[in-house]
Amino acid sequence: MSPINILHIVGARPNFMKIAPVMRAIEARSELVVTQMLVHTGQHYDATMSDVFFRDLRLPKPDLDLGVGSGSQAEQTGQIMVALERVIEERRPDLMVAAGDVNSTLAAALVAAKAGVPVAHVESGLRSNDWTMPEEVNRVVTDRLATLLLTPSPDANANLAREGADPARVHFVGNVMIDSLHAGLAAAKASHVHEMLGIAPNGYALITLHRPANVDDPRVLAPIIEVLLEVASDLPLVFPVHPRTRKRLDEMHLANRVQPQKNLRLVDPFGYLDFLALIASARLVLTDSGGIQEETTALGIPCLTLRENTERPITAEVGTNVLVGRDPARILPEVKRVLSGRGKAGRVPEKWDGRAAERVAEVIEQWWKRGGPRA
Ligand code: UD1
């Protein structure tokens, strides 16, 4: 087999845990002679949102950082495209690997497709069917452009079939996030995050919020904060605050509202291992993140998702996740149910076994054996 030249794209926090196991699994294929290059778009650039993940996930330092940073949807996507086009012209990869649904994923898929470079999309086929989310646009367009559609769950295969994707391109590999979770759990045991925060394992709830629909509008965010203040009278809450949310809380003067309640702790985002340690021994997780719905399902931790829909329905159908929306009248009874020990039990979905990246590597190897782009 001739050597294969693969370019991996990462940009935002949830990409790092998906690409790390994939790069390692490809490296480990004995039959594949491979050159792997890692490009960071710079969509997330704060040390707490990016650097610490490379260390925690044993992800190699990026070969190239495009340094794109923040901007509107179009600015961010466009700047990544312009910078990446030059990289592709120079390096002429045989395959580009991109994961998830962030703006960096979409930009990478658009540039690669137009340059004639095949794209492998890790975490393909997920759909919220909510077109107001920028991520939904990113998912659908990326899948339309990708050559290898690597799915985490059977619902993703069904979505792709409904959209008319060629079945030969679709491969149910399982969830690569869970590979990183398995790899990180042992190391997370050495974390001192609980002592640092002065909280006892199983004695707190973990909160994350960053979706524009939840944090950009004060009519939505203010009632959510009131719910958190109410829950905090029963249980300490740890809330690592995403930069987008931090900005909004300050603009809306909501940080002041929280300050007097010592049981609701607003802290900076954590690295991967500290965050895993926090999830793994939380009584309850309240979130609007996609990845955290999966991590709680894999760990059997009760999760209440503050959204009306999810692109990860398997976490609610099979796992511990419950969609509670944003209405305090729905959220509070669910919180009480979990705290009284009557929370929903769940199972771990098929192929969320820590070996999904091996299956990704296998698919890539088989594709390359069949002639790669000429297959
Ligand atoms: C992005 C993804 C989202 C993912 C999330 C995880 C898109 C459309 N959205 O949302 O799917 O769940 O990442 O975190 O790609 N900021 C900083 N420092 C950083 C990064 C961001 O201050 O390191 C600020 C930016 O200036 C901006 C805001 O946070 O104002 C949002 O960043 P952006 O990357 O546009 O989107 P996210 O909300 O992080």
How is this structure best described in words?
With 375 residues, this protein is of the alpha/beta class. The chain folds into two domains: 4-175 and 352-374, Glycogen Phosphorylase B (Rossmann fold, 3-Layer(aba) Sandwich), CATH 3.40.50; 184-339, Glycogen Phosphorylase B (Rossmann fold), CATH 3.40.50. Helices cover 46% and strands 14% of the residues. The protein contains 17 helices and 13 strands. It has helices at 13-28, 51-56, 73-91, 103-115, 134-145, 154-162, 176-188, 193-197, 212-215, 218-231, 243-251, 254-258, 272-280, 290-299, 314-317, 328-339, 356-369; strands spanning 4-10, 34-40, 64-65, 95-99, 119-122, 148-151, 170-172, 205-208, 237-240, 264-267, 284-287, 303-305, 321-323. The strands form two sheets. It has a seven-stranded parallel sheet with strand order 3-2-1-4-5-6-7, with helices on both faces. A six-stranded parallel sheet has the order 10-9-8-11-12-13, sandwiched between helices. Strand 6, helix 6 (154-162) and strand 7 (170-172) form a beta-alpha-beta unit. Helix 1 (13-28) packs across helix 7. The longest helix is centred in the first third of the chain and has 19 residues, at 73-91. It is globular. The two termini are 14 Å apart. Bound molecules: uridine-diphosphate-N-acetylglucosamine. Uridine-diphosphate-N-acetylglucosamine (UD1) binds at residues 12-14, 43-46, 49-50, 70, 76, 101-103, 134-135, 210, 242-244.
User: What's the number of domains?
Assistant: 2
Instruction: Tell me the series of helices and strands, N- to C-terminal.
Output: EHEHEHEHEHEHEHHEHHEHHEHEHEHEHH
Low-confidence stretches: none
CATH homologous superfamily assignment of the largest domain: Glycogen Phosphorylase B
The radius of gyration computed from the alpha-carbon positions, rounded to a whole number of angstroms, is 20 Å
Overall mean pLDDT: 97
First-residue to last-residue Cα separation: 14 Å
Strand order of the largest sheet: 3-2-1-4-5-6-7
What ligand molecules are bound, each kind once?
uridine-diphosphate-N-acetylglucosamine
